[in-house]
Every structure is written in structure tokens, then in C-alpha cells.
Design goal:
CATH class of one domain in chain A: Alpha Beta
Distance between the termini of chain B: 24 Å
Order of helices and strands of chain B: HHEEHEHEHEHHHEHHEHHHEEH
Distance between the termini of chain A: 33 Å
Strand content of chain A: 5-15%
Mean pLDDT of chain A: 70
Order of helices and strands of chain A: HHEHEHHEHHHHEHHEEHHHHHHHHHHH
Number of strands of chain B: 9
CATH superfamily of one domain in chain A: HUPs
Oligomer: heterodimer
CATH class of one domain in chain B: Alpha Beta
Radius of gyration of chain A: 24 Å
Strand content of chain B: 5-15%
Mean pLDDT of chain B: 75
CATH topology of one domain in chain A: Rossmann fold
Number of helices of chain A: 22
Largest sheet of chain B: 5 strands, parallel
Structural class of chain A: mainly alpha
Largest sheet of chain A: 6 strands, mixed
CATH superfamily of one domain in chain B: HUPs
CATH architecture of one domain in chain B: 3-Layer(aba) Sandwich
Number of strands of chain A: 6
Structural class of chain B: alpha/beta
Radius of gyration of chain B: 21 Å
Helix content of chain B: 40-55%
Low-confidence stretches of chain A: 1-64, 187-205, 360-386, 395-399, 428-460, 519-526
Helix content of chain A: 40-55%
Shape of chain A: globular
CATH topology of one domain in chain B: Rossmann fold
Shape of chain B: globular
Strand order of the largest sheet of chain A: 3-2-1-4-6-5
Chain lengths: 526, 398
């Protein structure tokens, strides 16, 4: 099914490497009679779209081999992502009828510091994780969340995909493959350990105590669990993207299941991220430019994943998360989860109804649930075969419109004082202005210091207002719960400063600029 | 009078309002169980020392502060709060250009707190906006409930000297009252879905009433909590069409329909209650007898929990709804006219005519269900069907 849902565009930079055989311990193969791996990853759509420029060429023809994309699997140890990794293993093995044609790597983020785990627990978990990762046989990266403190500001910039010609990419890919082969020999294990050695942090040594403390301080300073979870997700995403960029992965696969995505959809709605639902929960998320985040497990409910894991004895590791043992009302995420699961018990189609807001159908009954009749929801809004009710509204390139600093979506705030929800939170009415600002300076939490940008508002902390202005509505509301922005990792603060300096400079020279300088500015920014 | 009526059963947002009144004044106005509930549920303001006197009003600095605004935490006296509330409604109307000068405005009055506050505020602002007001009340024919509400509306109309028109379902819709509809839909073994009928028919009735008085605009008292609940509900039911129609500040009035708007849309429910309290407005505060069956109850519970977790959740939801990017076919088709009554319709028959058709034929579910509503996917029969937001709030409103 080559079409708009292809994830590889002509001329895209792809990694190279030989498709790996299954790991040292072959997975238990209880495939159905026709030999096809059950699950979405056996779906023709995903396979073809990840199949690279060569497509389905029979046999191991050498030229195709060099253009296989590298895909990073984000593994958290939980059931969904373990199931995803397992299915990738199955799909790549020589016995499967339709082999997946990409080169996977696995990344695990150690979030123990943010969750308040003791160093002994962390070390124990990490040992288990490493053992599990080694048995997969893929190149793996175990990265601690403390690495965010050494991320460069370029992690927050979305770079456009390279528009190199196919020939150039092919030649470069062949060259680097030959070099790699020459340097390493063909031993997969050694290549894996070289990957580990290429990590900025050696897997044997834990992160420095200073970084761990800085991270704990950051998370302890956040007032609400909701904001903590959002911050954790943001940092985790940035870190995974950074790892992907460093090691040349063009795609990242996350193991979000249908249930989780339905919950995430409702949670994003409640957090004020209604404009970005299609990005947050859609099949592919291209807002980061060169690295695309893909959610292959999105058609499977948690129940199906649980059955699959049990039937095929998929190993998973249980690690405590930020909201483990938290009461139900502690955060919006927990609330929504409990609510949706409770409603699902009463109205069994709740999850699928919510999920269908961002469903991608295949036109006649996809791998997932039964779809509605074709005339109702299917619409070639921008994809010929999608059936989404929500679209990714601004579809322009990276430089169109200012982007949120943290989530990299186009800003969805309008001017204060307008007759909208945002305006209602930032408006100051004339007769109340002077006494209000005085009262606000005296009173404790001040909503306008969080929102920023309102006229006549006393900007108590310039750096804070500076950062706030560059955030979308949802991120602003989250940052309100973070009293001091200095604890944020330096890459965020320096990128914020850079952007605001750029904006001020542009303000000054605006009258001298001819036409639209956005495109030039975009390509200049790396 | 300024009695603070609390309805039994479902806890109201009234109980969560933080009001800095001395306990003696409070105990006089509440009966014992309600007072106990109130004391237990009242969250203490974080920075307040109970032994210290209440702070000064933040705006006039003269009077003692009587309340803290739920959204901003600002301490204000009663008069300043009411002034601020009215100013914000005025700002919404002016900035959104909702009611041009010279408009004849039909206010949907149900006797509940929202429409009472709306009528009062608009009456205060009418000179500034240059509009004239008419009250339109709808009698759905729900025994034991609507009669008392209508009595409240009549008292209000008399006190404020506003013209009142009452339109009844029985007159407009061929003898069908809500009780009759409920009886007719009750036997099928599914949930009754009265709210579907009531919501659709009430819109029609309101439109008819507005035409009778010669109005140019229709306003209803939906507040921010109502909007947030509607968003949640439509999302949970996959109702993209309703979401596309409902976002924003109201419909501009396509086809022959009158433009509708909701001036209280950005005011939170707690503030509406506070305003009614400080202005000593008389309203009717019981919930509809059919309300417990409505799906909206789930959305309401969820909203209450969300608000407890994050106070700005209501406005965040409204913001999300405003910014939803819906696919073109998820939006409803451009409206035409109903072949029977000439009202706005996206199909051959408008929803009201379709529902009445079903009722008259003895098949009340005719217009509710998969065949007619392509976007509806709910399979299990015991679910309530998708509908316009039903009027199942504890305080009924349009």
C-alpha cells in the first residue's frame, strides 16, 4: 500500500545495515497456521511503509539492504512496549512469511531519579533491563533521565528532512556500511557493544550524583502530580529524540496501545491541548522534523496485549512510575484513566469510540476494529486512506509559525483580551487594573505571571515571562505549577533565550526585510 | 429572598464555594445536614489564619472582603465582585460582537440559576448595550417540576418588569408533553433517552417563542462548566458533528434560524452561584426528574473531579474545544430547510420533526439510532443515544 501513509519519502536519509537474524534465544514461535505474525506489525501497511525505497524485492538483494531504515524502539519495560519489541523480533526472524524490513534498536530510559527510587533499586532494575535487552539481540541504549542536563539546545529544534537525491543517499549509505563492516567484522554482538560504548554515558557507570540531585530537585519543586507527569513525558521525549538523532535513527516506535491512546486523548483535551490531538495520538507524529514518532500498537487494546503476552510468554519488567500508588484524584492522568476504564465497564464501546477520533483506517476494515461505513468518516483530508476526525491543522514546514518550546507544536494562543478561554484568563478590565496589579503583587499565586503577555501586567521575572511566551497553552498551564524555571535543564533555558533574542532582533529589523523571511530563517537554523 | 436552596441528593457545586462568611450567618441560612456537609467539604484557603480578620477587598479597599474568586483567588467584597462579573460578561458580549445595539433579545428563562443570573445581568447591561429583553419560558410538561420552575420565572418577570412568553410543548408539538414522551419510550427496555427529545424539542420551542415576540437574537445561560461538560460528553460519544457546531461563542444563525449566543460562556458555575447569592436572586434549584438517567451525569462527575485536580480545567477544556481541528467530513453538511416545518435542517427533516414523527408512529426510536446518524457508533442498546446536550443539570437551563 504505497501511498500517502508511506513513512519514507524519496531521498530520505536512511541508515544502513544488514537485517539481523533473531537473537541468541529464538522466541517461541506459535504463529498461526499461515505463518504470519499476529498483530499490527504483520500488517502489510506498516511493512510496506517501512520497507524502504526498494519495497518488496524477493530475496536478499544487496542494493536493497543498504537502504533499510533504522527504527528506534522505545521500550519502557511495560506490557505494551514489550509486546511491540517481541513482535518486531518475530517479524524480523527468517521464518516469518512477510519479513519486516528495517533495522531496529531499543532504547530504555531510566527514570528512577524522577520517581524517587533509591539507588539500589535503580541498579537492580537496570541490571534486569540490561539482561532483557541483551537477549533481544538488537543494539540497545540504556539512558538515564539525568542525561537531559547534558542535552544540547538543538534537541528542541525541528530540522527539516534532508532533501538529498536518492543517489547521494544511496552512495553515502553504501560507503558507511562498508566502513562499518570493515571496522567491526560481521559480529552482531560486537556492534551492539560498540553502540553501547558510543553512549555519552557508559552503561557501567551511573549518572553523577549532582545530576541526580538536580533532577530530584526539579521534580520535587513541581507542585502538582499532573505537571510532574507532563514534565516527565516532555523530558523523556526529548531524550529519546536526541538518542535517535545521535545514532541515525529516522523513526521512533512507541508502544502506546488503543486504551492508552484513548486515555491520552481525553487527558490532552482536559489539559488544553485540543489543537494538537492529532499529533499526540495519531499514527505518525512528524512535528520533530527529521525523526518521526510512530505508534504501531495503537490498534490493540490493553486486553489484547495482555492476552498476547500471556499466550506467547512475552517478558516484561515492572518498574514503579511517577504515579504508582497515587490516589485516584491525584492527577488528571489518573482521573481520566480511572474514569475511562470505569465507563468502559458500563459502555463497552467507550474506548473504541474515543480512539476513533484519530483512527487511521485502511478503507475496508483495517487490522483494528470494525469501521463505520465508508461514506461517513473516511475523508481524504490530506491522506487518501485515512479516516480521522481530527487533522493536523497547520501542515506547513518547520518554520511556519512560532513553535512551542517544549512540545514543538505551533502555538495556539491568541491575543489576550479576546473573547476566548485564553482571553478570559489573561484579560484585565480597565476599571480594575491598577488595584488588581497591586493586589496580585501582594497575593501569592498570580495567574498572570503564569500566562504572561498581558498588557499592563507586572512582569516580575523576566526570564519566566520570556519562557512562558514561547509555550503553547497546555505547556503554559503546566509551567504554572513550576514555581522556579531555573531548575529546568539548561538546554531549555538557553534555547528560550536564543529564541527570544531572535524575536527581538527580528522586531528591530522587520521594516527592512523584504517579503517572507521565514523560509530563509528556517533553513539557516539547524 | 436570599435563601440558599440546596437540592437533596446530588452534591452541588454550591457546597464547594469558598465564602468567607461568619459561621453564624451561614448557619442561619442552611439546615443542619447541609451545614455539616458544607463544613466538611469546604476547603480552607491556603494562606488564611482563622484567627485573623478577613482581608480587605482588593478592588475598593474599603469594605471587608466577603469572598475569594474561584479562578484568581482574589479577595473581593460583594459589590465589587458583582461589578467585576458584570464587566466580564459585558466584555464577552462586546469583544465577541454577540448582541449589536438595537437587538431584541429573547432570553431563554427556565427559572434556574443560570438563566436567572443571565436575565439579571443583561437587564443591568441593557442600557449600555442598547438592547431590549424578553423572557421566553418553555413548558415541557414535566409534572411536579416544571410548574414550580415556571412559577419562579413568573415572579422574576413581575419583579423585573420584563415581558414573559410561555410556550408549551403540548401546544407546539401536537399534544406531546415530556411525560407522555417518557411513557412512550419507557417500554422498550432501553434507557429512556428523554433528554434527547427534550433537548431537541426545547430548541425548537425556544425558536418559536423568540419568533412570537419578534426577537432578533436568542441567548441562553450556558456557563463554562456546561460547555466543558458538553465537550467531554461529545468526545466520549464520538459526536464530531455536534462538536463542530458547538464550539465558539454560539451560532451566527444560518438559514432562517435566529443567531444564538451564550454570554455567560466564560463564567464558571461557582461564580454564577456567587453572583446569585450576592444579588439575592430568587431561583429554582431542583433537578429534573429525568436527569439521573442522562449521560451528561458522567461528564459532570468527571468535570468535578478534574476541577478538583486542577482548578483551571474548565477553561482548559473550553480552550481545547475552541481549537479542535476537525476533518472536513467530520463537520456537519451545510444546512438546508426542513421539508415539513421549514426550520434549519441538515437532512430532509429537521431533528424535531423526525423525532415527533417517530413518536407519532409509535416508534419513538425511529430518529435515534445508527441508520439516521451516521456518526453514531454505539452498539449496546442500553446506552443513551447521542443528542443535543440534554437539560439534565440540577438547575435546569437551556
Amino acid at each position: 500500500m504505497l501511498g500517502k501513509s508511506r513513512l519514507i519519502f524519496p531521498g530520505e536519509k536512511v541508515g544502513c545495515g544488514a537485517p539481523l537474524a533473531g537473537g541468541p534465544s529464538q522466541p517461541h514461535r506459535a504463529s498461526p497456521s499461515y505463518g504470519r505474525t499476529p498483530g499490527l506489525l504483520g500488517d502489510s501497511r506498516l511493512e510496506t511503509s517501512l520497507g524502504g525505497v526498494g519495497g518488496h524485492v524477493g530475496g536478499a538483494v544487496p542494493p536493497v539492504m543498504f537502504l533499510l531504515p533504522q527504527v528506534l524502539l522505545a521500550w519502557s519495560g511495560g506490557p505494551s512496549s514489550s509486546s511491540m519489541v517481541w513482535q518486531v523480533l518475530e517479524g524480523l526472524s527468517r521464518d516469518s512469511a512477510k519479513r519486516l524490513r528495517f533495522v531496529p534498536g531499543v532504547v530504555y530510559i531510566d527514570e528512577g531519579a524522577a520517581c524517587g527510587q533509591s539507588p539500589e533499586d535503580r541498579a537492580r532494575t537496570l541490571a534486569e533491563v540490561k539482561l532483557a535487552l541483551q537477549t533481544t539481540g538488537f543494539p540497545w541504549h540504556a539512558v538515564a533521565l539525568e542525561e537531559v542536563f547534558s542535552l544540547p539546545p538543538s534537541a528542541l529544534r525541528c530540522s527539516a528532512q534532508e532533501a538529498a537525491g536518492t543517489e547521494g543517499a544511496y552512495k553515502a549509505a553504501v560507503d558507511s556500511f562498508l566502513q562499518q563492516q570493515h571496522a567491526l567484522g560481521t559480529n552482531g554482538v560486537e556492534r551492539q557493544s560498540q553502540h553501547c560504548a558510543q553512549d555519552p554515558q557508559s552503561p557501567a557507570g551511573p549518572p553523577t550524583t549532582a545530576q541526580t540531585q538536580a533532577l530530584s530537585r526539579l521534580f520535587d519543586s513541581v507542585k502538582t502530580l499532573t505537571a510532574k507527569e507532563e514534565l516527565l513525558q516532555t523530558l523523556r521525549t526529548h531524550l529519546i529524540l536526541h538518542v535517535a538523532r545521535n545514532h541515525g535513527y529516522s523513526k521512533v516506535m512507541t508502544g502506546d496501545s488503543c486504551t492508552r491512546l484513548a486515555i491520552k486523548l481525553m487527558t490532552s483535551l482536559a489539559l488544553g491541548r485540543g489543537a494538537f490531538l492529532a499529533w499526540d495520538t495519531g499514527f505518525s507524529d512528524e512535528r520533530h522534523g527529521d525523526v518521526v514518532v510512530v505508534r504501531p500498537m495503537r490498534e490493540h487494546t490493553l486486553k489484547e496485549v495482555a492476552f498476547y503476552n500471556r499466550l506467547f510468554a512475552v517478558p516484561s519488567i515492572c518498574t514503579p512510575a511517577l504515579d504508582t500508588k497515587a490516589p485516584e484524584k491525584a492527577s488528571i492522568h489518573r482521573l481520566m484513566e480511572a474514569f475511562i476504564l470505569r465507563l468502559q465497564a458500563q459502555f463497552p464501546s467507550t474506548v473504541s469510540t474515543v480512539y476513533r477520533w484519530v483512527r487511521v483506517g485502511t478503507g475496508g476494515g483495517g487490522a483494528g476494529g470494525v469501521g463505520p461505513p465508508a461514506s461517513s468518516v473516511l475523508e481524504p483530508c490530506s491522506h487518501p486512506r485515512t479516516s480521522e476526525k481530527l487533522v493536523k491543522a497547520p501542515r506547513a514546514g518547520c518554520a511556519a509559525g512560532p513553535r512551542c518550546l517544549l512540545c514543538m507544536c505551533t502555538l495556539d494562543v491568541d491575543t489576550a483580551d479576546s473573547a476566548t478561554a485564553f482571553g478570559a484568563q489573561t484579560s484585565h478590565l480597565p476599571q480594575m487594573q491598577t488595584p488588581v496589579t497591586q493586589a496580585r503583587a501582594a497575593a501569592g499565586p498570580c495567574c498572570c505571571a503564569g500566562m504572561g503577555g498581558a498588557p499592563g501586567c507586572c512582569k516580575r521575572e523576566d526570564p519566566r515571562a520570556q519562557v512562558m511566551e514561547q509555550l503553547c497553552y497546555g505547556c503554559r498551564v503546566n509551567m504554572k505549577d513550576l514555581p522556579s524555571l531555573e531548575l529546568l535543564p539548561p538546554y531549555i533555558l538557553s534555547e528560550a533565550q536564543l529564541r527570544s533574542q531572535r524575536a527581538t532582533a527580528e522586531q528591530e529589523i522587520r521594516e527592512y526585510l523584504l517579503g517572507d523571511s521565514e523560509d530563509e530563517a528556517g533553513t539557516g537554523e539547524s | 429572598m436570599g435563601t440558599w436552596e440546596l437540592s437533596a441528593g446530588r452534591p452541588q457545586s454550591l457546597l464547594e464555594v469558598v465564602v468567607l462568611l461568619p459561621a453564624s450567618a451561614l448557619s442561619r441560612s442552611l439546615d443542619l445536614p447541609a451545614w455539616v456537609l458544607f463544613r466538611r467539604s469546604r476547603p480552607l484557603p491556603p494562606l488564611q489564619d482563622p484567627t485573623m480578620p478577613a482581608p480587605q477587598c482588593a478592588s475598593c479597599h474599603k469594605a471587608r472582603a466577603a469572598l475569594r474568586r474561584p479562578r484568581s483567588g482574589q479577595a473581593l467584597c460583594g459589590a465589587c465582585f458583582c461589578a467585576a462579573f458584570e464587566a466580564e460578561v459585558l466584555h464577552t458580549v462586546v469583544a465577541g460582537r454577540l448582541l449589536p445595539p438595537g437587538a431584541v433579545v429573547a432570553v431563554g428563562a427556565s427559572g434556574g440559576k443560570d438563566s436567572t443570573v443571565l436575565a439579571h445581568v443583561l437587564r443591568e447591561l441593557a442600557p449600555r448595550l442598547g438592547i431590549s429583553l424578553h423572557l421566553v419560558a418553555v413548558d415541557e410538561g414535566i409534572g411536579g417540576y416544571r410548574d414550580a420552575a415556571l412559577a419562579a420565572v413568573r415572579r422574576q418577570a413581575a419583579r423585573w418588569e420584563l415581558p414573559l412568553t410561555v410556550v408549551a410543548y403540548a401546544d407546539l408539538f401536537g399534544g406531546w408533553t415530556m411525560d407522555a414522551v417518557a411513557r412512550s419510550t419507557a417500554g422498550s427496555g432501553r434507557s429512556r433517552a428523554c433528554c434527547t427529545f427534550c433537548g431537541v424539542l426545547r430548541r425548537r420551542a425556544l425558536e418559536e417563542g423568540a419568533r412570537l415576540v419578534g426577537a432578533t437574537h436568542v441567548v441562553t445561560g450556558h456557563n463554562a462548566d456546561d460547555m466543558a461538560e458538553t465537550v467531554l460528553m461529545n468526545f466520549l460519544r464520538g459526536d464530531a458533528g455536534r462538536l463542530a457546531r458547538g464550539g465558539g461563542l454560539g451560532s451566527p444563525g444560518e438559514g432562517g434560524a435566529l443567531p444564538r449566543c451564550r454570554p455567560l460562556q466564560l463564567a464558571s458555575q461557582k461564580e454564577v452561584v456567587l453572583y446569585a447569592h450576592f444579588r439575592r436572586l430568587d431561583y429554582f434549584s431542583e433537578e429534573c426528574v429525568y436527569a439521573p438517567e442522562a449521560f451528561r451525569g458522567h461528564a459532570r462527575d468527571l468535570l468535578k473531579m478534574l476541577e478538583a485536580a486542577r482548578p483551571s480545567a474548565v477553561l482548559d477544556l473550553v480552550h481545547s474545544a475552541e481549537r479542535l481541528a476537525l476533518a472536513p467530513t467530520a463537520r456537519p453538511p451545510p444546512p438546508g430547510a426542513c421539508s415539513r416545518c421549514g426550520a434549519l435542517a441538515s437532512r430532509a427533516l429537521c431533528q424535531a420533526c423526525a423525532l415527533l414523527d417517530g413518536l407519532n408512529r409509535g416508534r419513538p426510536r425511529l430518529a435515534i439510532g445508527k441508520g439516521r446518524r451516521g456518526l453514531d457508533e454505539e452498539g449496546p442498546p442500553r446506552e443513551p443515544q447521542p443528542s443535543r446536550p440534554p437539560a439534565s443539570e440540577p438547575v435546569p437551563d437551556f
